[in-house]
Amino acid sequence: MEPLTGGALTKRPVWERPLRGAYARKRSLFQKLVLWTSAILFLLLVVVYAGLQQTAGRILEQPFNILVLGFDESTTDERGVQSSRTDTIFFLAWQPQLKKAGVFSVPRDSLVEMAGFGRERINMAYVYGGYQLTRETVESLLSLPVHRFVGVNFAAFRELVDLVGGVEIDVDKRMLYTDKSAGLYIDLQPGRQRLDGEKALNYVRYRRDPLGDITRVRRQQRFLSALAGELKKEITPERFFAIVRISRKYLQTDLTPGEIFVLYYLFTRLDLGKDLTFATLPGEFYESYWRLHGRELERLLEPFANTGTGADSKK
């Protein structure tokens, strides 16, 4: 069968002929509209990005401390009430005079004085009194103010790791552990490998070691350092807005979008090898607790003790 042609003057099928007339003009106008709209939006993003950079510089002239709580999965008691415990506690401190940041791990079994409850594990503060009691307990323990709070659940952690395409880490041993009640199924082989969000979560949760939570905390620090390195490989406005999206979707926080940018801006300017310190609160095992060493703790935190006013506190 002969193809349908455009008339006696041509042998080309009609679907191969160039568009003409009103339809072609409409499509050309639409394409130009899309192009100009995209260009305007891009310029607006650049202007907003530049403005936030100037704001970040001003905010970072003051100390800025953040309490980061990693929650385990919610459990329901016999009354049907849901509750979570703080599976991980980090204290992030920025010291502008030194132009350095510190990430301090607070072992979950640390034995502390808790207002109204006496001496208890620090991870029980959230069970007894939520964020407010946890904040008061951490401030009393460290003698440093908490300016902002971030609560991270497992979903947020997984998605952030997947955002950077996984994290390469050296798994130090075979990790095999199952806890059906906690929905935990860990099976990792030793060796250097790239972990996606789910495997990374299993890596930082594993604690079947002679030193238990202390070894787990050290793994978490190594992983966070590797994750920071992955984030530094590609610093773009698009990635920043992706992080904002994750924070709005999953995180509990009193950080404003502008402050989230400030942290991202600070992160882009840090030399991770020189300006970022990871440390665990010093102590020793006492029965089933981690008993902190007061004088060593004071020396560890001394560089960050000149706190100034920092961000406006939100009680």
Characterise the protein shown here.
This protein is of the alpha+beta class and 315 residues long. The protein has a single domain (62-304), classed as Aminopeptidase, CATH 3.40.630. The protein has helices at 21-59, 125-142, 154-163, 197-205, 213-233, 237-250, 257-269, 294-301; strands at 64-71, 75-76, 82-83, 86-95, 100-105, 111-114, 118-121, 148-152, 167-171, 175-179, 184-188, 191-195, 252-253, 276-280, 283-286, 289-292. A hairpin with a 3-residue loop joins strand 6 (111-114) and strand 7. Helix 1 crosses helix 7. The protein is globular and about 75 Å long. The N and C termini lie far apart (81 Å).
How is the secondary structure organized here?
Elements (H helix, E strand, L loop, with lengths): L20 H39 L4 E8 L3 E2 L5 E2 L2 E10 L4 E6 L5 E4 L3 E4 L3 H18 L5 E5 L1 H10 L3 E5 L3 E5 L4 E5 L2 E5 L1 H9 L7 H21 L3 H14 L1 E2 L3 H13 L6 E5 L2 E4 L2 E4 L1 H8 L14
Parallel strand pairs: 1-8, 5-14
Antiparallel strand pairs: 1-4, 2-3, 4-5, 6-7, 8-13, 9-12, 10-11, 15-16
